[in-house]
Specification:
15% strand, 7 helices, alpha/beta, 7-stranded parallel beta sheet
Length: 213
């Protein structure tokens, strides 16, 4: 019985190690914006170019930009942020495919466990921006919405970029989830949908300036 429990004990120690390392490496952050989006967009795609621009706009204001550290939108945002005043941060995850750390990171952390990584995304967050993405992006989006909805974290802006991309999700939330009584109408106010990264960055920057005033 004791031998059977040993692997679980080591797993707890690995989790603890990831938490301690992440907290220590990011302890100096005063607030960051976490950006999510698909790893599958290539450098020549409009979405990638928007990601670069978003990273530039936020980091030029001295705002740390945090991504999942991989390719696609994550790489684009880190790439835009790296030459600017804000810190470019990547929280990389071990995956069997897609996830290779991009080279545009001032701070690069590696995680084995999704839930530890998601904790780090939220710990210093003063804003989330969701670019077009798949299951991972949706997972991170609804994690943030749930934490804000249940008041487990202080409310911060959650902004989705691309009205056409997110219209179907918004319609389903309104016509099915809200209509079924599974959320309140006020829950739909927990996020905004915009068309451009300029609009997204303006919402985030205005929020941060309001906190500092």
């Amino acid at each position: 019985m004791l031998d059977a429990k040993m692997p679980e004990a080591w797993r707890v120690l690995r989790i603890q190690s990831e938490l301690v390392d992440g907290i220590e490496r990011l302890i100096a952050l005063t607030g960051s914006v976490t950006v999510f989006g698909s790893a599958r967009f290539t450098e020549d795609s409009p979405e990638y170019q928007q990601g670069v621009r978003l990273g530039e706009l936020l980091a030029a204001e001295g705002i740390p930009v945090m991504t999942g550290g991989g390719p696609g939108i994550m790489e684009a945002c880190n790439r835009g942020a790296l030459p600017q005043r804000g810190v470019s941060i990547g929280l990389n995850i071990e995956l069997p495919f897609e996830q290779v750390a991009n080279p545009y990171q001032d701070i690069s952390l590696n995680f084995r466990y999704f839930f530890v990584r998601k904790f780090m995304f939220v710990k210093h967050a003063v804003g989330f921006v969701g670019m077009p993405g798949g299951y991972g992006t949706l997972d991170e989006l609804f994690e943030a919405l749930t934490l804000v909805q249940t008041q487990k974290v202080r409310r911060f802006p959650i902004v989705l970029v691309g009205k056409r991309y997110w219209a179907g999700l918004h319609g389903w939330l309104m016509d099915t989830v809200l209509e079924s009584g599974c959320i309140d109408a006020s829950d739909l106010d927990l996020f905004s949908i915009v068309d451009t990264v300029e609009e997204a960055s303006e919402i985030i920057i205005d929020y941060i300036r309001g906190r500092e005033a």
